[in-house]
Structures are given as structure tokens and as C-alpha cells.
Design goal:
Elements: E1 2-10, H1 35-47, E2 52-57, H2 66-78, E3 82-86, H3 92-101, E4 105-107, H4 115-121, H5 130-134, H6 136-142, E5 147-151, H7 159-176, E6 181-185, H8 204-217, E7 222-225, H9 231-240, E8 244-246, H10 276-285
Parallel strand pairs: 1-2, 1-8, 2-3, 4-5, 5-6, 6-7, 7-8
Length: 306
């Protein structure tokens, strides 16, 4: 089991995604970390054992520039950490700069593959471009990113149709980039902004079955689970099929300072509040070997779905 932590860099965002806590119209306290502040957060995570972190930020081009990401990535790599990025879709040139700086991968969820619903949920902002987002992982792979993270946001559309579409997307990426590592995540909406009601709620049993379907379809892919889910469910899925979990997470820029005393302004609420060492202790008791960093050898080839 690979353990990782998200490091939120900025909650500023120009997009109007109706389900997101960072959406532009929201009157929340927003924060953008300087490079030094980001490094300080990374140092806290380093002391907690993490060597693999996911750099996350809203889409705000004036602040979240390529140069900014490059500076953060280089500083984090200098600490001995392996960062991946979960940011707005970039150009191939920008992805190449991030990879050269030391980024090991890209996570870019399509949210939903239903184009009509996608337009409904993303009415304004750069994220309104379905095709630009869909092609983002392909640009990242062309630029040299070795790990490609796909995902759908459960609750936005029919989960079975979205899962099938995501697997078709993954098959295409594998055909073009057979030596890249593919990873999948199924974040689920638990709490959304005011006036948004989840149109396609996914219950716990269906949630587990969707992850099982991913494992059967992609037996060598990485399956990722965040702290959005409660302890019992994360433990259960770890025993079934998950290979990568976040732990001790904060979804607030600067949230790891002083025991996460930055209240308000989170992207989504955390359900599993266990400290990283508690998660690691449970995993060891359950018989898992724990990894704190991604493997640095050449990514193994993925298998096609049968």
C-alpha cells in the first residue's frame, strides 16, 4: 500500500463548477501559498513520513503559473520527495516543464464523460472545455509524465456508464503509451455547496462494486482512495483492491500547520481523520507492506482489458 498526502497550494479558482467548494462565486476565505509556504507544508508532511505528495490547486492563471509550479516542484524534490500534480489541464510544453522539474505524474479527473451533463455542471470558466480536459492526460504523457491518474466524480452521472467510458479512455491511453502507469480513483460526493443536490447518489455497496470492477478490468493498475470516505469503508476497500491511500489529509492551503488549525475554506470535508501513523499501524496489523514513495524504476507495462 502506497501512502500519500495532498498538498493544497491555492484555493483561488476561476471556474464555476457547481459541486465544488472552491467554485468562483463562493464567498470563502481563499489562500495561495508562496513557494516558501508550500515548502514549509511539505516539510511537515516529510516529518510525518510521506515521500510522495500530490500538489493540488484551483485554476487561477494569474497565480498558478507554470513557473510557480516549477519552483514548488523543484523545492519539494530537493527535500527528497516525489510530487505529482492535480491541477488544471496544461499545454504539452507546460507539462514538459513540470516533468523536467521532477513531477512524477498527473492526476486529471474528467468528472463525468457525459458531455451534456459536463456542460451543465461546468457552466463557466476554463473547465467548461470538455475536449481540452479530456485530452490533458494525453498531453501529459507526450510530455514525459510517467503516471497518469484518471477518475470520475461519483454522483454526477450514471456511474456504470461513466465507469465504462473511463475504461475506454484508459484503453486508448494504454494503446498509445503502453509503458506508463495508469491509476484510477472514484471520489464520491458526500457534501456539496448549498443548492446542489447530488443527482446520481452512489451507495456504499455500489461504491465497492465499482472499485472491484476496476480491479477486474485493469488488474495491474493503481487504485487510489482518498480520505473523503469513512474509516470502515477505507479499511474494507484496502483489504479488497486498493493499492494507494491518502492519510492525515487536509484540503485547505496551509492546513497542515499546527495540527490543521486552518478552519474553513476546504475543497471538501475529510471523513477519515486518522493520523498517518495510525493508518500505517492498521495497515501493518492487516498484513500490508507499506510504501511511502513511488517506485523510481521504469513504470511497468499495463495489461489490456479482456
Amino acid at each position: 500500500m502506497l501512502l500519500y498526502a495532498p498538498l493544497y497550494l491555492s484555493s483561488h479558482c476561476v471556474n464555476h463548477c457547481v459541486y465544488c467548494g472552491f467554485r468562483a462565486p463562493h464567498s470563502i476565505r481563499r489562500k495561495h501559498l508562496s513557494v516558501d509556504e508550500a515548502v514549509h507544508q511539505a516539510e511537515i508532511l516529510h516529518r510525518r513520513g510521506f515521500r510522495h505528495i500530490l500538489l493540488v490547486a484551483g485554476d487561477f492563471p494569474r497565480l498558478t503559473t507554470t513557473d510557480y509550479y516549477v519552483d514548488v516542484i523543484r523545492a519539494v524534490v530537493a527535500l527528497g520527495m516525489s510530487p505529482a500534480v492535480e491541477i488544471a489541464p496544461q499545454t504539452t510544453t507546460s507539462y514538459a516543464a513540470l516533468a523536467a522539474a521532477g513531477a512524477c505524474g498527473v492526476t486529471l479527473y474528467q468528472e463525468t464523460y457525459d458531455e451534456e451533463l459536463y456542460a451543465l455542471y461546468h457552466p463557466r470558466g476554463s473547465k467548461a472545455s470538455y475536449d481540452w480536459r479530456l485530452e490533458g492526460l494525453e498531453r501529459a504523457a507526450e510530455a514525459g509524465m510517467g503516471r497518469l491518474g484518471l477518475g470520475i466524480l461519483l454522483g454526477l452521472a450514471d456511474p456504470h456508464k461513466d465507469l465504462a467510458a473511463m475504461l475506454r479512455h484508459a484503453d486508448y491511453l494504454h494503446a498509445r503509451f503502453p509503458n506508463h502507469t495508469l491509476a484510477f480513483s472514484l471520489p464520491r460526493i458526500h457534501q456539496a455547496p448549498k443548492n446542489f443536490e447530488t443527482p446520481y447518489p452512489v451507495d456504499d455497496e455500489t461504491f465497492i462494486r465499482l472499485y472491484c470492477a476496476l480491479r477486474v478490468a485493469m488488474p495491474r493498475a493503481e487504485l487510489v482512495l482518498s480520505t473523503r470516505e469513512p474509516v470502515w469503508l477505507r479499511n474494507r476497500l484496502a483489504e479488497i483492491c486498493i493499492t494507494q491511500m491518502s492519510a492525515g489529509s487536509s484540503t485547505i492551503p496551509g492546513g497542515y500547520e499546527n495540527g490543521d488549525d486552518e478552519s474553513g475554506g476546504e475543497q471538501f470535508p475529510v471523513c477519515d481523520h486518522r493520523a498517518p501513523d495510525e493508518v500505517a499501524a492498521w495497515l501493518q496489523t492487516a498484513g500490508f507492506d507499506i510504501a511511502w514513495d513511488v517506485p523510481h524504476q521504469k513504470p511497468r507495462e499495463q495489461e489490456h482489458r479482456s
